[in-house]
Amino acid sequence: MFDVLAYLFEQYQDPEACRDRDTMMRQLEAAYFEDEEINDALDWLDGICDLDSSIYAAADDAYGMRVYADVELKRLPVEVRGLIQFLEDHGALSPAQREMVLDRLLELPDDDINVGSTKLVALMVLWAQKAELPILLGEELLDAVHGEPTMQ
């Protein structure tokens, strides 16, 4: 699924271009992705594109520290929580976007929740919102798509 998401991120500037599921299926099949992987990725992407940002807006107005629920602590490794905190502290994610990332991560199986998948989820949330990507942090996030960052 993550390979399909990375491919979509690289190929399409506008997430709206991914809304025609039949066309996307044909294009992804032509790129030699398997049907199950394509369906999982497109279902997951629909979840991001269908997020109602207004339900997360209050997070941007809140002050204080994010306290994780027991289920979040159990499912999200400390490295993942640390990365999310780092991205928020450095302006790559707003508090509302942080909550969107957390919600999308919790939709994944436990085995798929790691630092690499978190970077890709953060990128996909920002991409779906057509948000600006901070240059230096964006390079770190793009590591999830392209491999090692190119900046020195």
From TrEMBL:
Organism this protein belongs to: Paludibacterium denitrificans
Protein name, per record: Protein Smg homolog
Pfam families found in the cross-reference section: DUF494 (PF04361)
Family classification: Belongs to the Smg family.
Lineage of origin: Bacteria, Pseudomonadati, Pseudomonadota, Betaproteobacteria, Neisseriales
Gene: smg
InterPro entries in alphabetical order: Smg (IPR007456)
Signal peptide from the UniProt entry: none
